[in-house]
Amino acid sequence: MSTVAHTMMTAARSADSGLTSPGELDRYPYAEAPAVDRVGIPAWDGGDPELGRVGRRAAGSRGRGLHGQLVQQLGQMIVSGDLGADRPLVPEEIGQRFEVSRTVVRESLRVLEAKGLVSARPNVGTRVRPVSDWNLLDPDIIEWRAFGPQRDNQRRELSELRWTIEPLAARLAAGHGREDVQQRLADMVEIMGHAMAQGDALTFSRADSEFHSLLIQVAGNRMLEHLSGIVSAALQVSGGPVTGCDRPNEASLAHHGRICDALAAGDGAAAEAAMRQLLTVHPEVERVVPAPREH
Questions:
Q1: Would you give the distance in Å from CA 30 to the centre of its chain?
Q2: With 60 as the cut, is the pLDDT of residue 32 above it?
Q3: How far apart are CA 249 and CA 137, in angstroms?
Q4: Handedness of CA 266, 283, 239, 112 (dihedral sign)
Q5: Radius of gyration of the chain (CA)
Q6: Chain-centre distance of CA 156, in angstroms?
Q7: d(CA 188, CA 8)
Q8: Which of 147, 182, 183, 191 could disulfide-pair with 5, CB 3.0 to 4.6 Å?
Q9: Which residues of 240-272 are buried (b: 16+ CB within 10 A; e: fewer)?
Q10: How far apart are CA 178 and CA 165, in angstroms?
Q11: pLDDT score, position 49
């Protein structure tokens, strides 16, 4: 096993057991694990019962402290439909119910406004915006939708988007012949193989996520690179048999290996074909985006 593979597998196991040393995992661009601590949820009395239902959500929070948790909770409630379009959000009321300061509420609403979930206007106040205004490519919104009532639509849409993005990225990446990147991708495949043999789904998932993010970043297209976070989010929240990356298996590992071989050979067509095969391992995907016919 390579040094990179050994280090990454050790780090993943340590993180899972709470033994990670400071900064050890910062070298890897993984989404944070689902948060356990939440803003305290007092009973919501009176005319706003929906705001007391937030505690049942399970998606992970990327934020830190009270501010990040409040963004997470309000965002989940809006995306799930618990707070419908044009619903007024009164900062004073939110602060009182969630026992946070006005500063925390104000900053949280600004973050949600930047994501297109709410709008704040003079003499009107802050209101929930319709779905058509949301930034649906925001990783947080992708995550919230994937764990809400729209989970099936979100996963289907992510699958379709990945089908569009990743085969093209694989073709372009084959023309960049950087040995350091090719070695890094090969390391990720090696890690996935060892993790699968040991039944270590966490390490497999993390190596898989880094493989796909790195592939997009090395494609040499700035606009595709901007979408790498979407693919990472998709891998984190798939939660069902949407693509060949969802569960560790021999077919998935073999397709990742073929992508690496094609990149090393500078064969863009083969890299693209291998990626399409990877994204159509499960029949559920083939019903959404059929694989190309054999000629």
A1: 9
A2: no
A3: 29
A4: positive
A5: 21
A6: 14
A7: 9
A8: 191
A9: eebbbbbbbeeebbbbbbbbbbbbbeebbebbb
A10: 21
A11: 44
Residue 30's H or E segment, with its range, is none
C-alpha count within 13 angstroms, C-beta hemisphere, residue 251? 13
Taking only the tens place, the pLDDT of each residue in 187-236 is: 999 999 999 999 998 899 889 989 998 999 889 888 888 877 777 777 77
Residue 103's Cα: distance from chain center in Å? 28
DSSP assignment of 133-188 equals: GS-TTSHHHHHHHHTSTTHHHHHHHHHHHHHHHHHHHHHHHTTS--HHHHHHHHHH
Task: Report the mean per-residue pLDDT for the chain.
Answer: 76
Res. 241: pLDDT tops 90:
no
**What's the pLDDT score for residue 33?**
34
Q: What is the DSSP string of 59-120?
A: PPP-S-HHHHHHHHHHHHHHHHTSS-TT-EE-HHHHHHHHT--HHHHHHHHHHHHHTTSEEE
- 274 — pLDDT class (breaks 50, 70, 90): very high
